[in-house]
Amino acid sequence: xxxxxxxxxxxxxxxxxxxxxxxxxxxxxxxxxxxxxxxxxxxxxxxxxxxxxxxxxxxxxxxxxxxxxxxxxxxxxxxxxxxxxxxxxxxxxxxxxxxxxxxxxxxxxxxxxxxxxxxxxxxxxxxxxxxxxxxxxxxxxxxxxxxxxxxxxxxxxxxxxxxxxxxxxxxxxxxxxxxxxxxxxxxxxxxxxxxxxxxxxxxxxxxxxxxxxxxxxxxxxxxxxxxxxxxxxxxxxxxxxxxxxxxxxxxxxxxxxxxxxxxxxxxxxxxxxxxxxxxxxxxxxxxxxxxxxxxxxxxxxxxxxxxxxxxxxxxxxxxxxxxxxxxxxxxxxxxxxxxxxxxxxxxxxxxxxxxxxxxxxxxxxxxxxxxxxxxxxxxxxxxxxxxxxxxxxxxxxxxxxxxxxxxxxxxxxxxxxxxxxxxxxxxxxxxxxxxxxxxxxxxxxxxxxxxxxxxxxxxxxxxxxxxxxxxxxxxxxxxxxxxxxxxxxxxxx
Length: 493
Hints:
The protein is α+β, with helices and mostly antiparallel strands. The chain is built from eleven helices and 13 strands. Helix content is 51%, strand content 18%.
């Protein structure tokens, strides 16, 4: 790798958030290790000093048991005899500080008091390597006859031990800091690799490869959770794009054909001889075609409006049973024309918070589909509220929908009838689901055995009063003379 590229990689590495986070944690780790080592060293040094003082105190207490001066001098001579390796130092002097017994040649002249009753002074010791200066910690007191007694301990061995501890702790600190640096680099590289994997996937998707997904390590950590959520989002985006392509194809089929037919009709009319009646018929047919196009475009606008949630702020508490009853009354002539029985059931008011117009349109779409695709039999519309949920169900006795297609029919312009001979544009159920999601509900299709049950569930209004259940007469329509037409206003099929 060229030097310039390597320098750029190092510069980029040092300016990443991952490196900054690792650096902060390394500083905290280093400060913690240093504080721990300092505490351990000071605790050890204090323990050694306490042990030395305890030894000297024990020695003094033993000497104080000698009540006679001669006995004390004899004990001092024995304990200070050559060959003892306990590093203890003794000295007994007369009141003028002339030595009487002990292994010190004279009273120390350079002693300094370190605290009450304790003194520190240097001595010269001859070793194999020559003369060395050692420090002695001692305690001094005056005997009853005016003599002075000094008992101390050479601190050389304690100093050597303390230096070894200091060296060991220094090496341990360096090793810990080295491991911290190595761990920080590894952690930073690992985080960068995970982030770069996400960035690389996003870059490939930007270039048009929509099948790419964020790789997962399988550890289940935060990066895996983020990658999993991103993959779910990408799957949803891919489904939406596939739906958009399908919508585009269906628009080309459902809108281009009537527009072409409309234009051809007008062109043929212009080629005919001027005739007011012919022109009037052509205009009426053109208006009918335009109305159908407007219905389709209005349906798309209603779906977009519901999905965008632009009318969520205008929601009020409404009676869903009352809305469903009005829709059932509107469709009575349709059921009568087809010879179907239309039944309505709502035992009590069911209050929800929502948009009256959109909910009315959604219920009308469900009822319209049921009546349209039921050749004979019965269609039932029911509204109930239970367990905090409002349930609107439209059950028919028609051919139903295969279980593997019940989700697909909620997409825009999807129609199970390939010939598209039945009136409609395949937007009715799309609007129903959009309205359900706007109201934090759901739209599903279930078996009616035979037939199909379309269910719209919504959360009940939290401030809705508890209305006692009361019987309501079912609305039914016997077959009457033909002549009624499907209602067009506000219905998306």
